Amino acid sequence: MSLDGRYLRVTAAEVTRMIRDPEGAYEFASGLPDDRELWVHKAWMAISIILRRAGHPLDLAALNVADGEKTLPVGEWGGQILQPPKYLDAHQVRIAAEALSRTSYDGLIGGIDPKLLSKCYGLHGKWDEKDVEWVRLWFEPVIPFFEATAGEGDAILAWID
Q1: Count of structural domains within the chain
Q2: Which of 60, 100, 105, 126 yields a CA-CA distance of 20 to 30 A from 90?
Q3: What is the CATH number of the domain that holds 46?
Q4: By three-state DSSP, how is residue 144 classified?
Q5: Buried b vs exposed e over 78-116: b needs ≥16 C-beta within 10 Å?
Q6: Most confident of 9-13, 41-45, 57-61
Q7: Cβ(18)–Cβ(76) under 8 Å?
Q8: How confident is the model at residue 35 (pLDDT cuts 50, 70, 90)?
Q9: 8 Å CB contact between 43 and 12
Q10: Which superkingdom heads the taxonomic lineage of this protein's source (predicted)?
């Protein structure tokens, strides 16, 4: 199990379809265009810790924002998964996108204790500047992904696999 974070832009109609056909949801989601997916590798936990520390309304680990995430009631989801996929509806995506648009990575990591980040999955030992820059590479696409999704009025489906 790799513990990689994945986010997929989906329309409200696509969420409804997956809810109505939980056994076919994974196959349907897998067939959506690749340009609608954002992969944040193992950095999802570090990103989540950094955002929580800053009091950000978006928690990428729990996929929780504002009034909470919704769990997608699905059957099999790709064979390896820690928990069922969750999704943010268009309203929640808009809240997250607005908050992210006022966020800079440098502002988030300023003064952070590297010991806090050493708790992240997939990263062991002491953190140094190289590790912080590695997380930046995975964090920076999150902002335009949420902004574009909000701009389309879409939802975001997320899972850790």
Answers
A1: 1
A2: 105
A3: 3.40.1760.10
A4: helix
A5: eeeeeeebbbbbbebbbbbbebbeebebeebbeeeeeee
A6: 9-13
A7: no
A8: very high
A9: no
A10: Bacteria
Q: Which residues contact 17 (CB under 8 A, 6 or more apart)?
A: 25, 28
Give the type of residue at 81: I
H or E element that contains 37: strand 37-41
Give CA angle at 125 (38, 121), nearest 5°. Answer: 35
Q: Which two tokens stand for residue 57?
A: 């309304």
pTM: 0.85
Q: What is the pLDDT of residue 66?
A: 43
Contact 93, 154 (CB under 8 A): yes
Give the residue numbers spanning the domain of 14: 5-160
Element (H, E) at 106: helix 105-109
Strand order through the sheet with 155-160: 37-41, 5-10, 155-160, 86-88, 70-71
In terms of phi and psi (left: phi > 0; alpha: psi -120 to 50; beta: otherwise), the region of 131 is alpha
Q: Which long-range contacts (CB under 8 A, 24 or more apart) does 102-105 make?
A: 103/51, 103/54, 103/56, 103/143, 105/136, 105/139, 105/140
| CA dist., res. 44 & res. 50, Å (int) | 10
Q: In this structure, how many other beta carbons lie within 10 angstroms of the beta carbon of residue 136?
A: 16
